[in-house]
Amino acid sequence: MTSKLTDLAEEKKQAGHKTMSKDAVSWLQKKIDEIKRPSAIPNTIKGEVSRNKQPGQLRIGMLYCYYYDPKTKDDLPYWDRFPMVLILEKYNDGFLGLNLHYLPVRYRVAFLQKLMKYAQLTPEQDIRRMRISYDILQSTRRFAEFRPCLKRYLYSHLRSRILMIEPNEWDVATMLPIQQFRGAKPQKVWMDSVKEYKEHMAHFNQDNE
Prior knowledge:
This protein is α+β, with helices and mostly antiparallel strands. It contains 7 helices and 10 strands.
């Protein structure tokens, strides 16, 4: 997974595509379609060594993947075994974050593009991390996509090493079909998420009339 993401990110850069532009998205989609068995990519995390992260080293505003087994899975209609999470808050026993897999790809891409307004940049204008919080997300209708993505994770229920996705690889990673939903097919999850997004938009509009 690491080498594939890095290779695609570097190839995109050399092709002159800007992050999350329409041309870049089309280019990435074509490249991802060329990857053999993209759904099998998460298995490579088991061999990940150089970018292994322990829970105490997780950084707010960074994107991570890992295998997870929810404590309350028997009570959930469905859940993602391999989340891709942008961390918002850290606690003693876990963290709060946005699992982008809960959005259909086109919503995912649009949401990440909106969040770029809060990206902390290096002097070279590369993304360092995302400076976004729950308070910012819930204060405006602009980020209504966050509702179905908001999840709480426990360290004790992590079932693998934690893979940090470098910021220059975010747009590549978010377009990969590597979700592993249990209890429902992705189409069902995404349909419910879009419904929740639209309902949140409607409620926000009513509350601010």
